[in-house]
């Protein structure tokens, strides 16, 4: 399998999986507002992955915790992060999803998520309008957690130059983890790290 990645285009709406997109016009608005809506991964002509992106609002706070209903994984912490500038948050990594919403788990663990991350970092490096990228870094060792959350571990982000700026243990989604085997996690599975990549 040879993965090729590119930014999502408006014409991709309805052709690739669009779980978090309401319309082609919404995709267009995101592209116009932030320069990119999401990044797509292809194996030949088949879309096998998508990484959603959203402009970070430095004034937004969400006391409900990380498992709020916003699909782009805004930083649901009880206080702003105190960042100045324009940042994009890396939201859900969807791997193996089909346009009809079904999912093919055979694509897990084949480097698609890492390829999406690499493509976004490369895109950002050529962008003069975005000051940095933000991401949630999960704990290491729990494959079920990574697949459920659609995020990377903090170690993967560090390999791409991200640094940790905040660590918190969000116990408000413990009920989500109750039915999941997280016994191999190196830390409590609700430990979350805010990872930041900047040019400095």
How would you characterize the overall build of this protein?
- The protein has helices at residues 24-34, 112-125, 143-149, 154-159, 174-177; strands spanning 3-7, 38-43, 46-55, 87-95, 132-138, 152-153, 163-169, 191-198.
- It has 200 residues and is of the alpha+beta class.
- It has one domain (3-198): 3-Layer(aba) Sandwich (Aminopeptidase), CATH 3.40.630.
- Strands 1, 2, 3, 4, 5, 6, 7 and 8 form an eight-stranded mixed sheet that branches.
- Mean pLDDT is 83; it is low at 63-76.
Describe the largest sheet.
8 strands, mixed
Q: How confident overall, as mean pLDDT?
A: 83
Total domain count: 1
Amino- and carboxy-terminal Cα gap: 35 Å
CATH superfamily: Gcn5-related N-acetyltransferase (GNAT)
What is the share of helical residues?
10-25%
* Oligomerization: single chain
What key phrases describe this protein's structure?
27% strand, alpha+beta, 200 residues, eight-stranded mixed β-sheet
């Amino acid at each position: 399998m040879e993965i090729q990645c590119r930014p999502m285009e408006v014409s991709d709406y309805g052709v690739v999986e669009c779980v978090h997109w309401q319309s082609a016009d919404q995709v267009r608005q995101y592209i116009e507002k932030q320069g990119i809506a999401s990044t797509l991964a292809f194996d030949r002509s088949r879309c096998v992955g998508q990484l959603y992106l959203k402009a970070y609002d430095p004034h937004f706070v969400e006391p409900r915790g990380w498992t709020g209903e916003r699909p782009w994984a805004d930083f649901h912490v009880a206080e702003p992060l105190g960042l100045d500038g324009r940042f994009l948050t890396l939201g859900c990594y969807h791997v193996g999803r089909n346009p009809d919403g079904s999912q093919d788990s055979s694509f897990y663990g084949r480097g698609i998520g890492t390829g999406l991350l690499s493509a976004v970092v490369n895109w950002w490096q050529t962008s003069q309008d975005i000051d940095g990228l933000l991401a949630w870094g999960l704990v290491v060792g729990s494959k079920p957690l990574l697949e459920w959350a659609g995020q990377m571990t903090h170690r993967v982000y560090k390999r791409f130059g991200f640094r940790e700026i905040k660590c918190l243990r969000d116990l408000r989604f413990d009920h989500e983890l109750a039915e999941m085997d997280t016994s191999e996690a190196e830390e409590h599975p609700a430990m979350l790290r805010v990872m930041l990549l900047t040019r400095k």
